[in-house]
Amino acid sequence: MSLFSAVSLTAGYGRQPVVKDLSFEVEAGCMLGLLGANGSGKTTLLKAVCGILPHKGKCFLEYNSQESIILEELAPRKLSGLCSYIPQRSGISIDISVLDVVLMGFNPQLGILEYPSAKMKKAAREALQMAGLAGKEEENYQHLSEGQKQLVILARTLAADGMLLLLDEPESALDFRYRYQMLELLKEWIGKGRRAGIAALHDPLLALNYCDKLLLLAKGEVRAVLTPGEDPLDKMEKELSEIYGAVSLQRCRDRSGCERLVMLKEAEK
Amino acid sequence: MKKKVLSLLLVLSMVMSLSACGQKNSSVNEETAVSEESTAEETADESDSKTEASEPEETAYPVTVTDQAGREVTIEKEPEKLVSGYYISTSLLIALGLEDKLAGIEAKADTRPIYALSAPELLELPSVGTAKEFDLEGCAALDPDLVILPLKLQDTADTLEELGIKALVVNPEDQELLNETISLIGTASNTKDRAQALLDFTAEQEQRLEEALAGTDTPSVYLAGNSDFLSTAGETMYQSSMIQMAGGVNAAADITDTYWAEVSYEQILAWDPEYIVLASDASYTVEDVLADPNLEGCAAVENGNVVQIPGDAEAWDSPVPSGILGAVWLSSVLHPEQCPESDSQAVIQEFYETFYGFAYYEN
Amino acid sequence: MKHSTALPTMRIKAFCAAGTVLLIVLAAVSLFTGKYPLSLEGLLSGDPMQLRVFFTLRISRTVVGILGGFALGTAGFVYQTVFRNPLASPDVIGVSSGASAGAAAGILFLSGAAAVTLSAFAGALAAVCLALALSSLDRSGKNSTIVLAGIAVHSLAQTALMCLKLTADPERELASIEYWIMGSLNGISSYSISGNLLLCLICLIALFLLHRQILLLSAEEGEARMLGVSVGRMRLAVLLTSTLTVACVVSLSGLISFVGLLAPHGARLLTKRNTAGTMLLGGILGAVLLTGADILARSVAATELPVSIFTSLLGAPFLIYLIIKGRQKA
Lengths: 269, 363, 330
Prior knowledge:
The complex is a heterotrimer of chains A (269), B (363) and C (330). Chain B is α/β, with parallel strands linked by helices and 363 residues long. Chain B has helices at 2-30, 44-47, 87-95, 113-118, 136-141, 154-162, 175-188, 192-212, 238-245, 265-271, 286-291, 299-302, 324-334, 341-355, and strands at 35-36, 63-66, 72-75, 82-84, 102-104, 146-150, 167-170, 220-224, 231-232, 249-250, 261-262, 275-278, 306-308.
């Protein structure tokens, strides 16, 4: 059985469902990419999985080989200990130090009246270092650029050490270099231990190169499931063209010999 | 800028004319009111009439009076139907023997025991509202010949005038103004001799107290207000002169506020008054004050000299026609030797029997 | 923009220490300011009257000034953080107007200062419970719902207050209501305050223990939830606790304007951070402001003046100074 599975999820705002009867699975150590046009239900799906949006259907998390947990039945504290969510943009709007933001990630592990231990502070500093923000611990979070803020939130998520990572366009505010740095970090982190990630990505190129599987959404339903590393190019081209208009795919190698996918926009016919 | 100066001048001139009116009023008062249009009767004798005016005096209608807002009002004939929008004027009308002519009075009449004691029929009369919410139409519907209103309702008086209803504005804020009110209404309603008798009674008592208390020492008195024990009357207030007449000194004499002023427990302890007198409508009791741990050590509390002004008939600490009785009563509290309680009781009994027609003390 | 790592924490500590020193000075001045002449010699020589005034009146008034200001400042910090709105204050969810209506009802229908305090407290609590109950009708549990419900309750309480004022006797009851609304620490003595202060202190301790949760609530609802906060329940608990602290103070003193708004802002502008230390500094500034204002309120004139006049008079220039200073630096 796979680490995470969603069974017939239906969710939306008001009466109109945005996501209709979706089912999918994610294996341990895998990152699932969500692709789709604006309004296809990527954010709604993520919010439903992490329980922010009320929804129908169930999400199962295989805690260990014996025990499987239904996420909907968990209290927020328990749930947040297992799943971490990175929003498009963090809602923190007060003056607060970078370190304090990262320490927020330990809240699920702490009692309501407990304070972060020295060990947690050390872990938080390490996470910041991993995200390339060493030395900025005491800086005001509000004074950082949007990209740096997003990295802080990433560090918070990594430090929190959950099983399932849910990411909503985490790279949209990052510049070219940081995008790849972030995805490398995520992939490395997911590769360790029983973990998995579901990411709605802004940039299809990143999705093609860093996700093990891609879920193509259209109007709240699954259009196709792609495995970028294995599927033939023409099949992927056809499916991706449904979302992005005419595109072509190429495989090429970087200097170290690593195979990469490149997507080009073609003229519409 | 010009406009500002102009309006300032306007205000100034208004103030001056107002104060001029005030002066005129008090001078009118000395001569027992009023410039009468027809043959003015001899009124000059009246002013020094410590000896009760014996010859009955009639108001000759039409009569023009200046009320206490400075408005000139001409009353064509003796009013037969009266409306009073103020408890002091209502009480005054009873004292002048005019309760049968009243057609409407202010709201909350049931909170004034004097009505029930002296003229219970007033409680059945329609209400014309309060100073805050005057019922203009209800008042007009009663079709009164004369309406008497407090100064707060001056605008209402003007409106009534436009409706063709005569209205007098009164402002009995202190003893002098009250005397003026008494003369004014006495003239307007053709009850001058009874009004004079009322004025004489007060003057007599003032004189009696002054003579009886000459040369005695004056204990300090803290007067606690209606709304709160910590509110008190400064020197310029009516209540302060009551203390003075009764042979006491107002502990709060250095407060110059013209309205109830807020003080602290510390202040009272610093004054350390010999007597504490509670306003008659106080929302707390003598027991409350005696039991108040914050006042421990205060001379008045230690000696049990905490009293409340009786309010069985009227609040004597307000400028009502019976206001002088407050000083009479308090004099017996402060100086029982010079002013024995039995004397004071006799005065109080006499006042209510004469002017309100009931016995204050049941024997 | 280079900070050495320890700097902001040091700053907060330094400001808290300076604030505490100022507060101690003000407390000493407050203990020896008043209408009854007190002297150190008199107190030491055991003059019974001086001792009585000192222990029953001065100390309690000073304590209420300090703790009340501290509570208002802290509660203001909590409201502003939880509502993510710099203009939030206890008025937002109707606690002040509820307390006023309660006090007015107490003045009209009950007798005795203790009864008025109790009914003001009940009014404040009723207003907050009503606001939170109304907001719970909307399942989405948004902050804006609570604010809207608060505005509705606030206007309801104002209407009730107006009706009560209308029925009040202008000579005494209306005057009492007006004076109560103006707010004053006059008439406070050790006999009337212990219950309120104890509850206030307990609530304050609870708020400081919960400070981590309060800061977490400043994130967006979904984010806070994914950080393991039961947003609805925690927000309810925090708001109820901070409202209780305010109700404890306001029911003793009447309305005190500006402290709850200004003190936390001052603390934030000074420290440029939001931590437990900032919350503490907000409380200290509130205490300084209220104690200072009360010293003036009882000594400027021959009579007692409403303390709100001076909290605004002292507070407004301070806030303006901080804003201008912040502008120049930026």
